[in-house]
Amino acid sequence: MASSIKVRAKVSGDVTTVKTLISHPMETGLRKDKKTKKPIPAHFIQEVTCEHNGNNVMTALWGGSISKNPYLSFRFKGGKSGDALKIRWVDNKGESDSLDAKIS
Amino acid sequence: MSNMKRRTFLKGTLAAGAVGVAASTGLLTPRTVLAAWPTAAFDAKTVSDSLKALMGSDKLDGSDKIKIKAPDIAENGAVVPVSVETSISDPSSISILAEKNASPLSASFNLGSGTEGFVATRVKLAKTTSVIAVVKAGDTLYSSGKEVKVTIGGCGG
Description:
The structure holds two protein chains of two kinds.
Chain A: E1 5-12, E2 15-22, E3 45-52, E4 55-62, E5 71-77, E6 84-91, E7 96-102
Antiparallel strand pairs in A: 1-2, 2-5, 3-4, 3-6, 6-7
Chain B: H1 2-9, H2 15-25, H3 39-43, H4 47-55, E1 61-62, E2 66-69, E3 73-74, E4 80-86, E5 93-98, E6 105-111, E7 115-123, E8 129-137, E9 140-150
Parallel strand pairs in B: 1-9, 3-9
Antiparallel strand pairs in B: 2-4, 4-7, 5-6, 5-8, 8-9
């Protein structure tokens, strides 16, 4: 089954740049359904974590004001080509997904 | 359904937020979402309250070592690319706030020890606003801001 997470991680020298795109509606809970006029319930990713070789490299805490299908990029030192990366997200409904990737 | 609601209600601090979300979504997972998610900070209505809830302080030191990259004019307020880069050493976190959003705190990134002071993402801006980046290093909160004009607001309004 396709993951909701796409990731590109490239190392240059000692620095690995990670770019990730996650499929997620990121509903704020403030929008109203145009037909029923009822508010569309809040449904957004609250936390994204990235682990490198099992160590947490970055934790992102998000609210509903992060755009739909969120993009995230960050950089860290000490990675090498072939190293393991794990990206995981959890949303306000308790849903989650994760992806194991390698630094290229 | 009411059985699950009772269990969640009994779970303490997360109860208020969880029940609110549950009531509006009609959905409940018995699993607690995240003890670490700072609900008060994300619900706060002013920059000052967001920072006090998230960091324990709203005292900011202006810094020229923080670069915010964001468009001067955002055509679509629903998707505004923002990147924050800082040369301040050993940043432990970078946070992004949109002053005029109903809830200003957009995101907070906790950085590991080997992680660089750089984050990029895309945010929703309700209207023309100052985008504020707060970098925490040690006990100090450094900040910088950039005005972004928004032609079409980003919250579905």
